[in-house]
Specification:
This protein has 62 residues and is mainly alpha-helical. 31% of the residues lie in helices and 0% in strands. The termini are far apart.
């Protein structure tokens, strides 16, 4: 595989409309993982849903 520094990705939706660009953010991957902000509203909701589903399996009688 070649190293193509000029590569650009043109993201489009199902209708072919261009998606909003996500700005590149450089990260120092030598930092401890705890230093990165990984919080996101949808992640929190997903974890809460998972925990609720899991806890409901514990309450069911076998």
């Amino acid at each position: 595989m070649g190293n193509n520094r000029n590569f650009t990705y043109r993201g489009v939706d199902a209708s072919g409309r261009t998606l909003k660009a996500i700005p590149y953010k450089g990260l120092d991957l030598n930092l401890p993982w705890e230093s990165f902000d990984i919080a996101h509203e949808l992640t929190t909701k997903g974890i809460q849903k998972f925990m609720g589903d899991y806890q409901s399996t514990l309450r069911r009688s076998a």
